[in-house]
Automatic annotation (TrEMBL):
Uptake of L-lactate across the membrane. Can also transport D-lactate and glycolate. This is L-lactate permease. The keyword Transport applies. The lineage of its organism: Bacteria, Pseudomonadati, Pseudomonadota, Alphaproteobacteria, Rhodobacterales. It comes from Paracoccus alcaliphilus. Keywords: Cell inner membrane, Cell membrane, Membrane, Transmembrane, Transmembrane helix, Transport.
């Protein structure tokens, strides 16, 4: 049901022109560098929602509009958005609780986050590098 709701929200954002207006505003404020911020935002939102569906439903239309506005490769920006929305799910609060519960160590999520932080930072770095490759026209 949540996938359907986020898909409907994406259609509304796209059809109403909100996604395009948001992309134009972000592009006007940040220029080509807007593509560096938006995947990171999607990654954090995906982790908090424990799913890429919410981030993709809310941000995909804006990302496509941003790609068109900036002259970036639309398929590359779509791939980056999708990967970003799913990338930090492994360190989402719900998953950490499930993992600690299954491991028989409930309440030790903080320790688990300390262990997982380097992996999450690598993911953020890869997203950042991919965005730079898109901005520079390599992808």
């Amino acid at each position: 049901m949540s996938i359907i709701i986020f898909s409907m929200m994406a259609e509304l954002l796209s059809g109403s022109g909100i996604a395009n207006g948001l992309a134009v505003g972000i592009f006007a404020a940040m220029g080509d560098w807007a593509i560096l911020l938006t995947p990171q935002l999607s990654a954090v939102f995906g982790a908090l929602a424990n799913s890429g569906n919410a981030a993709n439903g809310l941000f995909m239309a804006s990302q496509v509009s941003l790609a068109v506005e900036a002259g970036f490769s639309v398929p590359a920006v779509i791939a980056l958005q999708h990967a970003a929305a799913l990338s930090l799910n492994m360190v989402g609060p719900v998953r950490m609780s499930i993992v600690c519960g299954l491991a028989g160590t409930p309440g030790r999520e903080r320790e688990m986050y300390r262990v997982m932080l380097p992996f999450a930072m690598v993911v953020v770095g890869v997203l950042f590098a991919a965005a730079i490759l898109i901005i520079s026209g390599v992808i």
